[in-house]
Write a structure and sequence with these properties.
The complex is a heterodimer of chains A (119) and B (109). Chain A is an all-beta fold and 119 residues long. Chain A has strands at residues 3-6, 10-12, 18-25, 34-39, 45-52, 57-60, 68-73, 78-83, 92-98, 108-109, 113-117. With 109 residues, chain B is mostly beta strands. Classes of the chains: A mainly beta (119), B mainly beta (109).
């Protein structure tokens, strides 16, 4: 059973960067993709991008192009999402998720990481 | 990129049937997925590939597709089904991307 465990909550200043980790266990890390999805307080789900660890290829949502970097370390089965030039609107819970049951079906989620951007 | 449109809210009484719709121009060509999210929790996949149900999801959850609209149906709604529901689709025909609907709050009266 694949499990995803994320790093802890962060408080950041506007203009800074944040890097959130997502460690996978219980499966073969290189055989699936890891997506990042965020949810601002009281708002809906927003896909940010994904990485295919076995290829090292990342795709990003147009909205975040140039500001987000998703990487993966196969040796530790850990994916990372770094968001730069933070602003208050980036305050949100950030989730990693993967699709095991079928392509594009996010059936495994991390517990979420709260990122607060405040001066 | 494209949009998925859901009604903001749906209300039903216990034991009734709830239907939540999701509309999008690309849905005839792409599969839809449905998630249930309760306050303070991560989303849970309840339907994939329009109508498939993951193991562990109660049979009262079902999905269907017709043209540009997909529908999540919850038969015999229970109080525990009160949650936000999101539809989702993905497109890998060009640069891969994923889109979520805006979410529907299901209230069990």
């Amino acid at each position: 059973q694949v499990q995803l465990v994320q790093s802890g909550a962060e408080v950041k200043k506007p203009g800074s960067s944040v890097k959130v980790s997502c460690k996978a266990s219980g499966g073969t890390f290189s055989s699936y993709t890891i997506s990042w999805v965020r949810q601002a307080p009281g708002q809906g789900l927003e896909w940010m991008g994904r990485i295919i660890p076995i290829l090292g290829i990342a795709n990003y949502a147009q909205k975040f192009q140039g500001r987000v970097t998703i990487t993966a370390d196969k040796s530790t089965s850990t994916a990372y999402m770094e968001l730069s030039s933070l602003r208050s609107e980036d305050t949100a819970v950030y989730y990693c998720a993967t699709a095991i049951v079928a392509d594009d079906a996010f059936d495994i989620w991390g517990q979420g990481t709260m990122v607060t951007v405040s001066s | 990129s494209y949009e998925l449109t859901q009604p903001p809210s749906v209300s039903v009484s216990p034991g009734q049937t709830a239907r939540i719709t999701c509309s999008g121009d690309a849905l005839p060509k792409q599969y839809a997925y449905w998630y249930q999210q309760k306050p303070g929790q991560a989303p849970v996949l309840v339907i994939y590939k329009d109508s498939e149900r993951p193991s562990g999801i109660p049979e009262r959850f079902s999905g269907s597709s017709s043209g540009t609209t997909v529908t999540l149906t919850i038969s015999g709604v229970q109080a525990e089904d009160e949650a936000d529901y999101y539809c989702q689709s993905a497109d890998s025909s060009g640069t891969y991307f994923v889109v979520f609907g805006g979410g529907t709050k299901l209230t069990v009266l």
